[in-house]
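Reposting from the mailing list since nobody answered there.

I have sequence plus structure tokens for a pair of proteins and want to know whether others read the tokens the same way I do. The first protein:
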Amino acid sequence: MPKRVDRIVLDNSDIIIKNWLKIVSENRQNDYTSSISDELFQSTNREFVNVIFDSLGNGGGLTTELESFSERLVNLGWPLSYLTDGLQTFRRVTIDFVLSQHDQIDTDFFSIILDRVDTWVDPIINKLVNEYSGSWEHTVSLQRVALQELSAPLIPVMRNITIMPLIGTIDTERAKQIMENLLDGVIKHNAEVVLIDITGVPVVDTMVAHHIIQAAEAVRLIGSTCILVGIRPEIAQTIVNLGIDLGKFPTKSSLRKGFETALELTGRTIHREKKQETIVEDIMNQLSKG
């Protein structure tokens, strides 16, 4: 009997695929795929149901085609529920079709059909969930690494001068990343002065200040100077109220002032040219005096 069910399904795959595509398209109006173009949606559905039948033809399970299909959906950002819902719909469509081919159906025959279809669909769902989850976790892991690298960048702006702009909240994990990037960057870029810009840090509490002080002290120990810039009035008031001592390294209210200090510390001087209007005005004054 199980082989007979297999033969009915495989011999009538075109009808089952047609019924499956119809139901999936009808359900699309109220689900997450409504924003996807019709062409992409239809082509994805056809590929999906074809790889399902390829899997059934090979005895069930996760074939190379089905595995590649799931990986591609992960990269495209399609949710796992698209796969599981599609397989559940395939289960219902297949059972309904097999039952429609028989006039008389008893409990034993119905049970055989359910068990046979379950032996196809359940292993595919289980393996797809594992495969999809593994691919998703790998993608999230790569994104987490990229975000960590971007969360504490050290930017060389001039020979021996680097800047680390910080944006957002600073927790213990991010503080560790800041410390590592800071020390590695100072050595890599041979930086004499590092400017830590906290303009984009919304709150500076005792913990944040402690992490910044630790980072500045670590920079000092390897022979460089750390300048804390971007101290807004409200942050300055908070630091004073908390009794935090930032006297061990320079602080400036803006990045421009901090950069000027960095130039001085690295033996450079700033020459400001007069504006053209000022030069013309000086000439006119000299002519009037003459």
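The second protein, same order (residues first, tokens after):
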Amino acid sequence: MAEAARRRPKERVAAPAPPPVRVTRSEPARGAAHELDALLHHRMRLGLVSALAAADSLSFNDLKTLLETSDGNLSVHARKLEDAGYVTCTKTFENRRPRTDYHLTARGRQALARYLGHMEAIIRAAKETLGR
């Protein structure tokens, strides 16, 4: 009998759910936060697009140095931006060595401008909330 009692699973009592947290935000901030481009919101991709917005083009090695990242990390994030049409990649040879250059497309420039606009709206709303 004692053995059967040991094998019986104990009933677990669920802890009561915490009350919902109410966060009051202004409507512009809520709307802007939902409209953020998830692709650009990643630190590495935002840095890559921002760097390309400031320069006509940058080589893979220049971006790697600027963003302080590894070859693999940069290539994965650059590929995602390329697949979205935000950047283009040009591969050439320079003194028999491969060279990869990245350029920001018009679509990428528009996406960055939208993203920055949304972030500015969120910041404005947060400042208004803090000023109350």
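Reply #1 (J.P.):
I read it the same way you do. The radius of gyration is 24 Å.
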